[in-house]
Amino acid sequence: AAARLGATVQFLGCLGEDAFGDALCQGLADEGIGLAGVKRTSEEPTGTAMILVNDAGENSIVVHSGANFALTPADVESKAALFEAADVVLLQLETPLETVERALALARAHGCTSILDVGSDQELPEAIWSAADVISPNVHEAARLAAVQDDSVSSRAIAEMLYLRHGVSMVMKLGRDGALYYGRDSIQLVDAFYVTPVDTTAAGDAFTGALGAFWGAPMNTLLRHANAAGALAVTKTGAQPSLPNREDLDRFMARQSG
Fold first, then answer.
1. Strand, coil or helix: 168
2. What is the reported pLDDT for 43?
3. 232 Cβ partners below 8 Å, 6+ apart?
4. Separation of alpha carbons 193 and 207, rounded Å
5. Is the pLDDT of residue 13 over 80?
6. What residues does 176 pair with on adjacent strands?
């Protein structure tokens, strides 16, 4: 997602020594993504997911983590040079938590902005909260992290709870309601772009990729780009095929502005 939007990307992860792993490596290489951080293992198969999409475009995903959980803190440490060269580190919770912690520590040590997408049901220990620069859940994940079960509690109130509790900037993905930034410097809500959804599977990935690719822009501009990337992604079927490139994003935003 970030590479298609113009970012120079290195991938750090673990794949099985199987046909799925070969195909994924080739796919990453075809997108111009660096593979210096890719570990291959014969101990586990490449992680896979089965995605079901209903007539409204909403999805359910069943994941077999496989080799994703064979990525160790030592593996991350051995690729410290990748962090030294990076401006932004994008992370998720589909690898072991101790591996995420080590990656966050390396990001901070090398002056990278770390953005953690909370796309998993794993709990977040305080060590991760305190090491991340930005936590980016969707509204349901944020409510779970804040232990809020009352649907009447607003997204802003949940973001405030998490910010005051942990002191970490929040970027919440609100779906059709847009995106909310809650941080030390400002609180900003940016509206979504309205499109007809076909498949919502990659919306969060497209959004997070844009956060990484455009990080450093004014927050309103950043969230507008991320919302646009997420909107474009839901108009196509499939996960990777639906992730927009920079030209598509620019054209879409120009039409919306016009």
1. coil
2. 96
3. 195, 206, 242, 244, 248, 249, 252
4. 12
5. yes
6. none
Cβ neighbours of residue 165 under 8 Å, at least 6 residues apart? Answer: 146
Computed over every residue of the chain, the mean pLDDT equals 94
Query: Which tokens in the block code for residue 103?
Result: 């990656």
- Of the two residues 82 and 256, the one the predictor is more confident about is 82
Cβ-contact 16, 42 below 8 angstroms: yes
pLDDT value for 39: 98
On whether the CB atoms of residues 172 and 26 are closer than 8 A, the answer is no
pTM of model > 0.90: yes
Distance CA 102, CA 194 (A): 39
**Catalytic annotation, pick one of 117, 133, 199, 205:** 205
Q: Mark whether 205 is an active-site residue.
A: yes
CA separation, residue 89 to residues 20, 104, 186, 227, 238 (Å): 25, 8, 22, 20, 25
> Strand locations in the chain, DSSP E?
10-16, 34-41, 48-53, 59-64, 88-92, 113-117, 134-136, 169-173, 179-182, 187-190
Residue type, 203: A
SS3 state at 83: helix
3-class SS of residue 239:
coil
Measuring CA to CA, which residue among 85, 97, 71, 110 is closest to residue 34?
85
pLDDT in the model for residue 28: 97
Indicate the pLDDT class of residue 135, thresholds 50, 70 and 90: very high
Instruction: Specify whether the CB–CB gap between 225 and 214 falls below 8 A.
Output: yes
Is the pLDDT confidence value at 120 over 80? no
